[in-house]
């Protein structure tokens, strides 16, 4: 079974949900395997292939104590000097992300006259729809069973013309989740060094918050208060939370790395299970 298939993610998510709900009882490998109707051997192999660590080790990354430690370690947000608008380059694990924000006039036009090409792809965290305008990522939205990709894209860019063109946007997916879509090692090597362009449509405040999220390194966490302080508005943590909840580009703009200052993970636009999976997966990659 492919460790990056939607079915695998659904099984992993059920196991993670059981792990976090019953962490104090230290569930056995057999219990976890039973939650996904698999043998211990196959579950252990599948989980380790997906996460890079054992279920027991993975569960440690999801504890409140671990989250608090990562918060104390902190992301260097407060030391970052933000430029006007959205220019410059953000570092995201092994990717360079170049970010461009639409002008106020373009924001009002809501994509009028623009072609939004899209496709649906697999990832370690389930299916997602990827939309691009002029070769720049404009939408990355993780899908639930009843989601309609076209409706999601239209909400983000109401006046854009939609065109399903999987092959046109596939090269971008090979940079986002290279082990999922790239078919050869050389193909992954070729795509990994190219800047990954992102096009954002949002208010000036939203753009500022989303840019701040790009400064949180993989394996680190930040609180809503820390993000508010980083953008120079320390009393705006509630508005920051609203902006984070409106992030149109999941994973690449890492809103999943923002948690409550208490160490609790809090909500996530694409589901708390998915947030837990991402945080544990990233912690395993950094620690490993």
UniProtKB/TrEMBL annotation:
Catalytically driven reaction(s): a 4-O-methyl-thymidine in DNA + L-cysteinyl-[protein] = a thymidine in DNA + S-methyl-L-cysteinyl-[protein]; a 6-O-methyl-2'-deoxyguanosine in DNA + L-cysteinyl-[protein] = S-methyl-L-cysteinyl-[protein] + a 2'-deoxyguanosine in DNA
Domain of life (superkingdom): Bacteria
Pfam families membership: DNA_binding_1 (PF01035), HTH_18 (PF12833)
EC number(s) reported in the record: 2.1.1.63
Transmembrane segments: none
UniProt keyword annotations, A-Z: DNA damage, DNA repair, Methyltransferase, Transcription, Transcription regulation, Transferase
GO biological process, one term: DNA repair
CDD domains registered for this protein in UniProt: ATase
GO molecular function, one term: DNA-binding transcription factor activity
Similarity section: Belongs to the MGMT family.
PANTHER family listed in its UniProt record: METHYLATED-DNA--PROTEIN-CYSTEINE METHYLTRANSFERASE (PTHR10815:SF13)
Protein name: methylated-DNA--[protein]-cysteine S-methyltransferase
Organism: Spirosoma agri
């Amino acid at each position: 079974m492919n460790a990056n298939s939607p079915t695998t993610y659904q099984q992993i998510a059920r196991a993670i949900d059981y792990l976090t709900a019953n962490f104090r009882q230290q569930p056995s490998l057999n219990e976890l395997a039973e939650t996904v109707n698999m043998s211990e051997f196959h579950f252990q192999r599948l989980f380790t292939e997906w996460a890079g660590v054992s279920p027991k080790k993975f569960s440690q990354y999801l504890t409140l104590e671990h989250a608090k430690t990562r918060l104390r370690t902190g992301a260097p947000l407060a030391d970052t000097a933000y430029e006007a608008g959205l220019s410059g380059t953000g570092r995201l694990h092994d990717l360079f992300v170049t970010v461009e924000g639409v002008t106020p006039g373009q924001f009002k036009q809501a994509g009028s006259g623009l072609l939004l090409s899209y496709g649906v792809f697999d990832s370690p965290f389930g299916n997602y729809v990827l939309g691009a305008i002029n070769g720049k990522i404009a939408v990355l939205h993780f899908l639930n069973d009843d989601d309609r990709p076209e409706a999601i894209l239209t909400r983000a860019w109401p006046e854009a013309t939609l065109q399903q063109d999987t092959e046109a946007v596939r090269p971008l997916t090979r940079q986002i989740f290279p082990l999922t879509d790239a078919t050869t090692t050389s193909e992954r090597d070729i795509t990994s060094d190219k800047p990954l362009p992102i096009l954002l449509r949002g208010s000036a405040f939203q753009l500022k918050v989303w840019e701040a999220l790009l400064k949180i390194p993989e394996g680190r966490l930040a609180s809503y208060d820390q993000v508010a302080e980083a953008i120079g508005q320390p009393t705006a943590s509630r508005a920051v939370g609203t902006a984070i909840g409106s992030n149109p580009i999941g994973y690449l703009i890492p809103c999943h790395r923002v948690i409550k200052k208490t160490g609790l993970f809090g909500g996530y636009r694409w589901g708390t299970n998915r947030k837990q999976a991402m945080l544990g997966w990233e912690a395993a990659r950094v620690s490993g």
